[in-house]
């Protein structure tokens, strides 16, 4: 009987030359949780949120009182009465959207103007990078935590204001109105997120927290107050209107003014919000007579068409937010961090 032949050496089970080491966690989750907890429990965030909530509720109350007298007539002719709460003001207060547009950037700036240089001045940045945490996880975690805190605040404020409007008017929102409100809150998060990323950028490239805060506030004041005046002067210089009866001169000046004003994130957000909360808006900018032939005056646009109309605005806001964060990311990764 033949004896068993030993297996050749090539058939012997081979052990891997080098075992793969387990991948080390980047630390992004730890940084995100820590920063989010600091934001939500911080006095700075609570004060600014309280300011926005108080002014927002007051604006909704004034808007509800303004609509209450004409609610019966409006509900018969206007299917979007609930949305008018957010865009209707009174003699004492502007509408709710004005306060969100004006005060929203302060929330983003307040959360991030000392995100990097504050850690550096306290001497905790060098300790943080010495931990088993990837360096990019620090700035990524700070940005994502700030964006998450803003999302929580914006949706909570939207629910609170919508609930108050429902109690005051007794008119529930339709599905179309609810979806438009959700889109409005999402656009608000992107808008405030731009100011968050801008503040992170200044906090990264400037060493002093006071300097980063002043730089962010200066841009906020410029775009909120002075940009429209400056862009109007530039439009008048480039495309002057010497004869107000000349339609081509007036149209050229209006197009230049609109193009320059759209360099401002505040105007982009304002036009997007107006289109979402007022379905009767069918165009943004001047129109020629042949462009409106066949259109039904006052006919509301469906939500999909309104989103298509403001898609360039949303793209510009999101791109500006990502560009600011990208520049801050590159600057942070190239900086030298020394132990204090």
TrEMBL record:
<feature type="compositionally biased region" description="Low complexity">
    <location>
        <begin position="1"/>
        <end position="11"/>
    </location>
</feature>
<feature type="transmembrane region" description="Helical">
    <location>
        <begin position="181"/>
        <end position="202"/>
    </location>
</feature>
<protein>
    <submittedName>
        <fullName>ABC transporter permease</fullName>
    </submittedName>
</protein>
<feature type="transmembrane region" description="Helical">
    <location>
        <begin position="45"/>
        <end position="64"/>
    </location>
</feature>
<dbReference type="Pfam" id="PF12679">
    <property type="entry name" value="ABC2_membrane_2"/>
</dbReference>
<feature type="transmembrane region" description="Helical">
    <location>
        <begin position="310"/>
        <end position="332"/>
    </location>
</feature>
<feature type="transmembrane region" description="Helical">
    <location>
        <begin position="137"/>
        <end position="161"/>
    </location>
</feature>
<feature type="transmembrane region" description="Helical">
    <location>
        <begin position="214"/>
        <end position="235"/>
    </location>
</feature>
<keyword id="KW-1133">Transmembrane helix</keyword>
<keyword id="KW-0472">Membrane</keyword>
<feature type="region of interest" description="Disordered">
    <location>
        <begin position="1"/>
        <end position="22"/>
    </location>
</feature>
<keyword id="KW-0812">Transmembrane</keyword>
């Amino acid at each position: 009987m033949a004896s068993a032949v030993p297996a050749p050496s090539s058939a012997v089970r081979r052990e891997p030359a080098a075992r793969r080491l387990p991948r080390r966690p980047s630390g992004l989750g730890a940084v995100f949780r820590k920063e989010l907890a600091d934001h939500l429990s911080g006095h700075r965030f609570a004060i600014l949120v309280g300011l926005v909530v108080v002014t927002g509720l007051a604006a909704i109350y004034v808007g509800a009182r303004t609509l209450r007298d004409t609610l019966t007539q409006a509900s018969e002719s206007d299917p979007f009465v609930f949305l008018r709460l957010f865009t209707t003001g009174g003699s004492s207060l502007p509408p709710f959207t004005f306060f969100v547009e004006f005060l929203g950037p302060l929330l983003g700036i307040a959360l991030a103007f000392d995100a990097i240089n504050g850690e550096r001045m306290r001497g905790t940045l060098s300790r943080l990078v010495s931990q088993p945490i990837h360096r990019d996880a620090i700035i990524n975690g700070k940005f994502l935590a700030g964006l998450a805190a803003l999302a929580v605040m914006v949706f909570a404020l939207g629910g609170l204001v919508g609930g108050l409007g429902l109690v005051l008017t007794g008119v529930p929102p339709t599905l179309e109105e609810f979806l438009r409100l959700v889109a409005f809150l999402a656009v608000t998060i992107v808008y405030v997120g731009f100011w968050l990323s801008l503040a992170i950028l200044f906090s990264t490239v400037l060493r002093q927290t006071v300097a980063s805060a002043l730089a962010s506030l200066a841009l906020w004041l410029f775009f909120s107050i002075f940009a429209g005046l400056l862009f109007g002067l530039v439009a008048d210089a480039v495309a002057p209107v010497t004869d107000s009866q000349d339609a081509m001169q007036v149209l050229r000046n209006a197009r230049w003014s609109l193009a320059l004003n759209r360099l401002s994130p505040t105007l982009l957000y304002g036009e997007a919000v107006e289109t979402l909360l007022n379905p009767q808006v069918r165009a943004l900018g001047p129109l020629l007579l042949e462009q409106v032939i066949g259109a039904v005056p006052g006919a509301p646009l469906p939500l999909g068409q309104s989103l298509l109309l403001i898609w360039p605005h949303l793209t510009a806001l999101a791109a500006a937010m990502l560009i600011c964060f990208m520049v801050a990311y590159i600057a942070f990764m190239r900086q030298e961090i020394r132990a204090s």
